[in-house]
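The instructor's notes for this session suggest beginning with a concrete chain rather than abstract definitions. Hand out the sequence below and ask the class to guess, before any prediction is shown, which regions might be ordered.
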Amino acid sequence: MVYRHLRQLEGDGLVTSEWETEGSGPAKRIYRLTADGAEVLALWVEHMERQAQKLGTFIEGYRNLSKKRE
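After discussion, reveal the predicted structure:
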Protein backbone atom coordinates (compact mmCIF):
# COMPACT_ATOMS: atom_id res chain seq x y z
CA MET A 1 0.00 0.00 0.00
CA VAL A 2 2.84 2.41 0.83
CA TYR A 3 4.48 1.88 -2.55
CA ARG A 4 1.19 2.48 -4.34
CA HIS A 5 0.96 5.86 -2.60
CA LEU A 6 4.59 6.63 -3.40
CA ARG A 7 3.94 5.92 -7.08
CA GLN A 8 0.91 8.22 -6.96
CA LEU A 9 2.98 10.95 -5.29
CA GLU A 10 5.59 10.52 -7.99
CA GLY A 11 2.93 10.79 -10.68
CA ASP A 12 1.73 14.00 -9.04
CA GLY A 13 5.27 15.41 -9.09
CA LEU A 14 5.62 15.47 -5.30
CA VAL A 15 8.45 12.92 -5.10
CA THR A 16 11.08 11.54 -7.44
CA SER A 17 12.67 8.13 -7.28
CA GLU A 18 15.71 6.32 -8.59
CA TRP A 19 17.17 2.88 -8.21
CA GLU A 20 20.25 2.50 -6.02
CA THR A 21 22.23 -0.48 -7.26
CA GLU A 22 25.51 0.05 -5.43
CA GLY A 23 26.53 -2.22 -2.61
CA SER A 24 25.56 -5.75 -1.87
CA GLY A 25 22.01 -7.03 -1.91
CA PRO A 26 19.11 -6.19 -4.14
CA ALA A 27 18.61 -2.79 -5.72
CA LYS A 28 16.67 -0.26 -3.63
CA ARG A 29 14.33 2.43 -4.86
CA ILE A 30 15.17 5.77 -3.20
CA TYR A 31 12.44 8.44 -2.96
CA ARG A 32 13.06 12.17 -2.54
CA LEU A 33 10.68 15.07 -2.06
CA THR A 34 10.48 17.61 -4.84
CA ALA A 35 10.12 21.34 -4.08
CA ASP A 36 6.36 20.99 -4.62
CA GLY A 37 6.33 17.92 -2.38
CA ALA A 38 8.10 19.82 0.40
CA GLU A 39 5.54 22.63 0.12
CA VAL A 40 2.60 20.20 0.26
CA LEU A 41 4.18 18.42 3.24
CA ALA A 42 4.63 21.72 5.10
CA LEU A 43 0.97 22.61 4.51
CA TRP A 44 -0.13 19.15 5.66
CA VAL A 45 1.96 19.43 8.85
CA GLU A 46 0.38 22.83 9.59
CA HIS A 47 -3.07 21.30 9.12
CA MET A 48 -2.21 18.40 11.41
CA GLU A 49 -0.88 20.82 14.06
CA ARG A 50 -4.21 22.68 14.02
CA GLN A 51 -6.09 19.38 14.32
CA ALA A 52 -3.87 18.33 17.24
CA GLN A 53 -4.56 21.65 19.00
CA LYS A 54 -8.31 21.18 18.56
CA LEU A 55 -8.09 17.65 19.89
CA GLY A 56 -6.03 18.83 22.87
CA THR A 57 -8.63 21.48 23.66
CA PHE A 58 -11.41 18.88 23.47
CA ILE A 59 -9.54 16.49 25.78
CA GLU A 60 -8.80 19.26 28.28
CA GLY A 61 -12.47 20.27 28.31
CA TYR A 62 -13.55 16.67 28.82
CA ARG A 63 -11.14 16.20 31.74
CA ASN A 64 -12.29 19.44 33.36
CA LEU A 65 -15.92 18.29 33.14
CA SER A 66 -15.01 14.89 34.54
CA LYS A 67 -13.27 16.51 37.55
CA LYS A 68 -16.33 18.67 38.27
CA ARG A 69 -18.55 15.57 38.36
CA GLU A 70 -16.39 13.83 40.97
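Then share the key points. The beta strands are 15-20, 28-33. The helical segments are 2-11, 35-69.
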